[in-house]
């Protein structure tokens, strides 16, 4: 428990950008001026209760078909028509939500601070089942239609039957001594459940029995103090074309072969937010506020934009020829995938924009910390 409390403190310190020295903390970089090339048009906006809350949740919405599902920290879950914003249903779970939202195969999936996994009917919002796990759930559960897999804060992986909630298997991992408060959502294929761990490893399990297929270390803890040795893979994994991309805090960005876990390439990086992919590149929001575009074939940096230092960037997303990223003041920034230059900007929520933007077709969905969910298109 002492280490768990220390982990929460560590996240607060690191998220604030504080130094381990006595140097005065630098303020967030001022927004750079640029010549606007594109505009964002708001198509609709809705309030989703209390939004992300004060415990650094990442309640990213989920799109499934023509609906978008979103939840707030207090347990309000809403299903909306993603093109009109019309409310289809809302459900008050009356329990704090910390891992949201997974959606697919007729299910809406959430995790709670009380160590529960909930499955709702996507058409009605009715609770279909609820299962208990051994720790809080800080990322969305994932499903492939057969099973639901969830990763807990202490790196345990659980698999439940998708439509009954019966436990199929559980796989225990020993977490790092000191970790950030967070974890990524597992990535599922028909045969594999893949997860990034607080120890800097990526693990692939057989979905049928939960047996390990391969394990690969992405980051090696370094430094004298436990703070310096934090190498969590918290931002989630990215699967594209048979390659798994993973990035760790104070570690590396790596490309792994899906079937074997073999490292195809790696480069130094530090991020706890996650990745995006497009135009033959992988994009990462680094911890200090630099957005980097990396060639997915060679690991070479194609461009780097450091104009958003200390602005606590969200994970990036990709739409058309642009990269999207949010910041602590609630701005959604658009950058060119070609060279990383700014091409557009829109303020979404003055409380901040921590959750990764969601892209579906030509639509962008941004969910602000204060609970404002906005649908936008590029003009």
Spatial strand arrangement across the major sheet: 1-32-31-30
* Spatial shape: globular
Q: Estimate percent helicity.
A: under 10%
Give the CATH class. Answer: Mainly Beta
Number of domains: 1
CATH topology, anyone? Methylamine Dehydrogenase, Chain H
Total strands: 32
In terms of per-residue confidence, which ranges show pLDDT below 50 for 5 or more consecutive residues?
Answer: 1-21
Classify the secondary structure makeup into a structural class.
mainly beta
- The named CATH superfamily: YVTN repeat-like/Quinoprotein amine dehydrogenase
- Separation of termini? 51 Å
Task: Indicate the multimeric state.
Answer: single chain
> Main sheet, how many strands, which sense, barrel?
4 strands, antiparallel
Our Rg estimate from Cα atoms comes to 19 Å
Percent strand equals 35-45%
Q: What is the mean pLDDT?
A: 91
The number of helical elements comes to 1
| Reported CATH architecture | 7 Propeller
InterPro entries: BamB, PQQ_b-propeller_rpt, PQQ_rpt_dom, Quinoprotein_ADH-like_sf, WD40/YVTN_repeat-like_dom_sf
Organism: Pseudomonas mangrovi
Subunit structure: Part of the Bam complex.
Subcellular location: Cell outer membrane
List keywords for this structure.
single chain, Methylamine Dehydrogenase, Chain H, 4-stranded antiparallel β-sheet, 1 helix, globular, disordered N terminus, Quinoprotein_ADH-like_sf, Outer membrane protein assembly factor BamB, palmitate
């Amino acid at each position: 428990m002492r280490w768990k409390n220390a982990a929460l403190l560590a996240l607060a310190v690191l998220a604030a950008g504080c130094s381990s020295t006595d140097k005065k903390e630098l303020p967030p970089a001022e927004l750079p001026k640029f010549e606007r090339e594109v505009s964002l048009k708001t198509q609709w906006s809705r309030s989703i209760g209390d939004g992300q809350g004060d415990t650094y949740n990442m309640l990213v919405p989920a799109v499934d078909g023509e609906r978008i599902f979103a939840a707030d920290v207090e347990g309000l879950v809403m299903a909306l028509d993603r093109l009109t914003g019309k409310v289809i249903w809302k459900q008050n779970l009356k329990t704090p939500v910390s891992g949201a939202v997974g959606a697919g195969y007729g299910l809406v999936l959430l995790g709670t601070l009380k160590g529960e996994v909930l499955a709702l009917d996507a058409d009605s919002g009715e609770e279909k089942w609820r299962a208990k796990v051994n720790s809080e759930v800080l990322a969305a559960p994932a499903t492939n239609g057969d099973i639901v897999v969830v990763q807990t804060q202490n790196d345990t992986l659980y698999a439940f039957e998708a439509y009954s909630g019966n436990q199929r298997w559980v796989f225990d991992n020993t977490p790092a001594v000191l970790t950030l408060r967070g974890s990524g959502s597992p990535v599922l294929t028909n045969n594999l459940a893949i997860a990034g761990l607080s120890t800097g490893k990526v693990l692939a399990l057989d979905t049928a029995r939960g047996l390990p297929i391969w394990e690969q270390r992405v980051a090696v803890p370094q430094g004298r103090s436990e703070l310096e040795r934090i190498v969590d893979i918290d931002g989630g994994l990215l699967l594209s074309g048979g390659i798994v991309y993973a990035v760790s805090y104070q570690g590396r960005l790596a490309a792994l072969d899906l079937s074997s876990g073999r490292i195809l390439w790696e480069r130094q990086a530090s991020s706890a937010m996650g990745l995006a992919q497009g135009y033959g590149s992988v994009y990462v929001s680094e911890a200090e506020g630099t957005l980097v575009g990396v060639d997915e074939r060679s690991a070479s940096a194609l461009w780097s934009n450091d104009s958003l230092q200390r602005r606590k960037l969200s994970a990036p997303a990709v739409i058309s020829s642009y990269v999207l990223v949010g910041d602590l003041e609630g701005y959604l920034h658009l950058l060119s995938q070609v060279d990383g230059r700014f091409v557009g900007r829109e303020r979404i929520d003055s409380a901040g924009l921590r959750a990764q933007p969601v892209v579906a077709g030509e639509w962008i969905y941004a969910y602000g910390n204060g609970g404002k969910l906005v649908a936008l298109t590029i003009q």
